[in-house]
């Protein structure tokens, strides 16, 4: 790749990062309805057309904001390609794997909890966001299922109730559960991480 192409690629990446950072702030401060693409463009110091060309709609922009917040960057590496997931599927003890799951979930909710709350509200009016919630639930279940199935394969977990365990842990680890615990029980991230670790420990002992 030529230096000129590299320069242009990096410029495009920086522009996207500015747009996403500005959109995240505006969504968190103003909510979904009151945030406009024009306001995002102004905050990011780019033309409105740039935002429209790159994202198309406000729903697509919010989707991208959530996706990036969940993994922590714009790299093309999904959740299961992250360091915490590697530990959760390969650590020598079940306790270490549970700890990695709790730490990983805390990181995700710490980065994405606010924009997930915005997306939850937007889902009632935006079919794209509603569909993303459904896909997010499936992705959570698949990721946790992979981790728990690997623990069974490695002899760290009894597989007799694996399906039940995956279903139950998927509900506990869902974004909706975190948001509910935050609103109903005033959970902060420390409390959420400790609660999740305790719940996973109890469930994997039954």
Molecular structure report:
The chain has helices at about 5-35, 35-45, 50-55, 60-70, 85-90, 95-120, 125-155, 160-170, 175-185, 190-205. With about 210 residues, it is mainly alpha-helical. It folds into two domains: about 1-55, Homeodomain-like (Arc Repressor Mutant, subunit A), CATH 1.10.10; about 60-205. The chain is about 80% helix and about 0% strand.
The whole-number mean of residue pLDDT values reads: 94
- Structural class comes to mainly alpha
Radius of gyration: 19 Å
Number of helices: 10
Largest sheet: none
Provide the helix percentage: over 70%
| General shape | globular
What oligomeric state do the depicted chains represent? single chain
According to DSSP, the number of beta strands is 0
First-last Cα distance: 55 Å
Query: Which residues sit in consecutive blocks of at least 5 with pLDDT less than 50?
Result: none
Strand content range = under 5%
Q: What is the number of independent domains?
A: 2
Order of helices and strands: HHHHHHHHHH
Briefly, what is this?
The chain is mostly helical. It has two domains: 1-56, Homeodomain-like (Arc Repressor Mutant, subunit A, Orthogonal Bundle); 59-203. It contains ten helices and no strands.
Key features?
Arc Repressor Mutant, subunit A, 206 residues, 79% helix, 2 domains, mainly alpha, single chain
Topology, pairings included?
Layout: H1 3-34, H2 37-44, H3 48-55, H4 58-71, H5 83-90, H6 94-122, H7 127-153, H8 162-172, H9 175-185, H10 189-203
Helix pairs in contact: 1-2, 1-4, 1-6, 2-3, 4-6, 5-6, 5-7, 6-7, 6-9, 6-10, 7-8
